[in-house]
Amino acid sequence: MSKRLILLIIVLLLPITVFAKKEAFLVGVGKYRSSNIRELKGVEKDIEKMKSLLIKKGFHVRVLMNSQATLRNVINTLKSYKTLSPNDVFLFYDSSHGVQVPDTSGDEQDGLDEAYALYDTTVDEDGVANLDGILVDDELERYLSNISARKFIIADACHSGTMYKDIGGKIRTKGLNRSKRFVASRGILGKIKKVNNLVYLSASQAYELSIDTDDGGVFTEAVYSSISSNPNITFRDLQVQSANHIQDMCNKINQHGKRVDVFHPNLYVTDNRLLNQPIDGYLNINIYSNNHLVEEYLGELQNSNIGRLDINMPSRYEVNDEISLNINTNGKSGYLYILTSRDNSNEINVLYPNKFYRNVKYLYGNFQFPLPNEKFQFIATKNSNRPERTLVYVI
């Protein structure tokens, strides 16, 4: 009877893959150039939490912190992501003060645009923010419209109120006094292309203040804990769970003699079908069989400093034998990809994920493939009258 030889080359999931990229850009401003702007002491911890979370999910993470996070540097970095393709994923996160400026584009019902206060933001003697160092939401939208990748924006900054609101202790609001100047003075108006494939989650409504503590932003902690505890959480449920977490935290703060108002995360999607999509599914990447990339792909794997996974399975199978892989990630975690290639062939077949089964679950430790809840079989099949060799790449 014809037999098939299975030769296994086991590699660890790369931070960025050959066929798709997962890029994250994190901006944190707790210390400002202007001494008139109150310091946000929890921002560094916000960045640490989000960076750790995203690296575990396979993202390549870029961070601009405090003095690095000038308006020019942030804009130039945003522009660098315009080379991403529709198969890629881009996540932008900001933890800073927020401010509102008069709207001149006519897209805001309240006549005000929301903006991020970056490191070089300036305020006058009355604590009113000028346009220097401010990234307005219309301006951000312009740069996002040039990024073709799937986009997830998370903003931990309030959009109204005053940074000098005296609530004492170690609790601080994340807002500056409203700017009286018009956005048009910086010349950013003009036609903005529609942003597609976007999910935007912000800490608060346009009229609310979000809260910073020495342990980090309350909103960031809500997002971090919700995603960490449930990788399959949907965007809609993330908003709900984050709101519940914020309610609990604000209640605890008020019980200790401080007075803070509960704020409510705002969720916006360009396609309502995204509301009930698991976040990991949206942030996941798709691999496609592409013959001319096979040699380049294998070459990158072999030339990279990649840790190896442990696997336990027979090396020889008879036709119609069911194949099961016992995998140990050796303390690493990530998404599972299984590719096969016939010996002496320049074609890679993507066994998993596929159109029936998507790798939306983050895997860690020891597990068996096929996974318990996935009802399909991995079968050795006959292709010739002689023994064959198939390469199986588990990534």
Spell out the blueprint of helices and strands.
Elements: E1 3-10, E2 22-28, H1 43-56, E3 60-65, H2 71-80, E4 89-95, E5 97-102, E6 112-117, E7 134-136, H3 137-144, E8 150-156, E9 172-173, E10 198-202, E11 211-213, E12 216-217, H4 218-229, H5 235-255, E13 266-269, H6 279-283, H7 294-303, E14 310-312, E15 316-318, E16 325-334, E17 338-342, E18 349-352, E19 363-369, E20 388-394
Parallel strand pairs: 1-20, 2-3, 2-4, 4-8, 8-10
Antiparallel strand pairs: 1-15, 5-6, 6-7, 9-11, 10-13, 11-12, 14-16, 16-19, 17-18, 17-20
Helix pairs in contact: 1-4, 4-5
Number of domains: 2
The number of E-state strands comes to 20
Q: Which band does the percent of strand residues land in?
A: 25-35%
Average pLDDT, to the nearest integer?
Answer: 73
Do you know the CATH architecture of the largest domain? 3-Layer(aba) Sandwich
Global structural class: alpha/beta
What global shape is seen?
elongated
> Order of strands in the sheet with the most strands?
3-2-4-8-10-13
- CATH topology name of the largest domain, in short, is Rossmann fold
Contiguous low-pLDDT stretches (5 residues minimum) are: 1-19, 105-111, 159-173, 178-193, 286-294
Q: What is the name of the CATH class of the largest domain? A: Alpha Beta
Oligomer: single chain
- Report the order of strands and helices: EEHEHEEEEHEEEEEHHEHHEEEEEEE
Helical segment count? 7
How far is it from the N-terminal to the C-terminal residue, by CA?
31 Å
Q: What value does the Rg take, in angstroms?
A: 24 Å
